[in-house]
Design goal:
It is a single chain. The protein has 378 residues and is of the alpha/beta class. It has a single domain, classed as Rossmann fold. It is 31% helix and 24% strand. The protein has twelve helices and 16 strands. Strands 2, 3, 4, 5, 10, 14, 15 and 16 form an eight-stranded mixed sheet that branches. Strands 1, 6, 7, 8 and 9 form a five-stranded antiparallel sheet that branches. Strand 3, helix 6 and strand 4 form a beta-alpha-beta unit. The protein is globular, with a radius of gyration of 21 Å. The two termini are 35 Å apart.
């Protein structure tokens, strides 16, 4: 059994969250797989990061927010995305949007307003969100659209419409693996002699989705993430999506970049008060835990489950294809400056990607991938 170095510390700022984690570790026999730790730290009812009352979204850390998403940054994000959604609704003959992980509700607000203005009004806008606190805030923001907006506790039996998800896949729990020079070890969380959270690695069957012969190229000590939950989510989508399309916007890479031997530390990162750090064991429940998305794995999961990949490209290409330049020309100087971050290569433009899916028998030339499609890189 090999063990990684302990965390730099986990101050007990949230005694209830730490007590719950210690309980889960004890129930698991003293060693909790990292994906279960991440799930609890983010989603444990009332305690996890996305389940407690702490503010998450916003542009100013002095207001207690931790990070900013594209819809928070500029309303032009949702207005551009709405043009893609409108095309997909028209193609499929549907009038419903379903959003998973709606955050503050700003994207929903932007989409509904813009679709109304485009003459593509929605009959229903469904939101699926695990956080009761966020659902309350979404309800306040979207009250004027009642009764079109509804919240769901689970997947609808069938989806006839367009699914959108911005920064959803990156927040799904991942498994962590460490290469010791001969084997891939599974990382878990245990308690050290001082009863503090601690990483410990154990033998397991999981491995990254790379050919076994490539393992020798990894430096001993390399840590990577694998994404069975995100890929399972996409396979579930394939079972439910009968008509329409689905669009995922998130930060990530194709598999060849994701598991490049030079990427020795993985992509896991935490965010707190607009500061980033790599230690998920510190301040559990008080900060976001996230990883980049392996878009090759997501695309293959969708294809294997019977969907067609409509395209894959950078956020910059996607938004420009959806008319962002025209929207910028109509915006004032302040709005242009904020929206520029959506497409700037050193900001969100290149780091964030978009992948689209449709049922296998209902593919179409999606507007957002009309130029700069990178599906061949997956």
């Amino acid at each position: 059994m090999a063990s990684a170095s302990p965390s730099a510390g986990a101050p007990a700022t949230e005694p209830a969250m730490l007590a719950r984690l210690r309980e889960l570790i004890a129930q698991a026999g003293g060693w909790l797989p990292f994906d279960r730790y991440m799930s609890a730290a983010l989603y444990e009812p009332g305690l996890g990061y996305y389940a407690n009352a702490r503010r998450k979204f916003g542009t100013m850390p002095q207001q207690g927010s931790d990070f900013v998403t594209a819809p928070e940054l500029s309303p032009l994000f949702g207005r551009a995305l709405a043009r893609q959604v409108a095309q997909a609704l028209q193609h499929s003959g549907t009038d419903t949007v379903i959003e998973f992980g709606a955050g503050s509700g700003k994207l929903a607000e932007q989409l509904i307003e813009t679709l109304d203005a485009l003459g593509q009004p929605l009959a229903k806008y469904f939101i699926v969100d695990l956080s009761g606190m966020l659902r309350e805030r979404q309800g306040e923001r979207l009250a004027r659209f009642a009764p079109r907006v509804e919240w769901l506790d689970r997947w609808p039996d069938e989806i006839h419409g367009v699914l959108v998800a911005n920064e959803l896949l990156d927040a799904m729990p991942v498994e962590l693996l460490r290469w010791d020079g001969e084997h891939w070890l599974q990382r878990g969380v245990t308690l050290d002699a001082q009863d503090q959270l601690h990483f410990e690695d154990r033998p397991g069957d999981a491995r990254p989705p790379t050919p076994p012969g490539h393992d020798v190229g990894f430096v001993p000590g390399t840590v990577v993430e694998i994404h069975p939950q995100a890929e399972a989510f996409v396979r579930t989508l394939a079972r439910h999506l009968k008509r329409g399309a689905a669009f995922f916007i998130d930060y990530g890479f194709p598999e060849s970049e994701y598991y490049h031997p030079q990427r020795t530390g993985g992509t896991l990162m935490c965010h707190h008060l607009h500061m980033a750090d790599p230690d998920p064991l510190a301040l559990p429940g008080q900060k976001d835990i996230t990883t980049h998305v392996n878009f090759t794995g997501i695309a293959l999961a969708g294809q294997d489950a019977g969907m067609t990949v409509l395209g894959y490209t950078s956020q910059a290409n996607f938004l420009i294809n959806c008319g962002l330049v025209e929207l910028l020309s109509e915006a004032d100087l302040t709005q242009r400056g904020m929206a520029h971050r959506l497409i700037a290569e050193h900001e969100m433009g290149e780091l964030f990607k978009v992948v689209g899916f449709a049922p296998d028998d209902a593919s179409f030339d999606a507007l957002g991938f009309s130029a700069g499609d990178r599906s061949h890189t997956l």
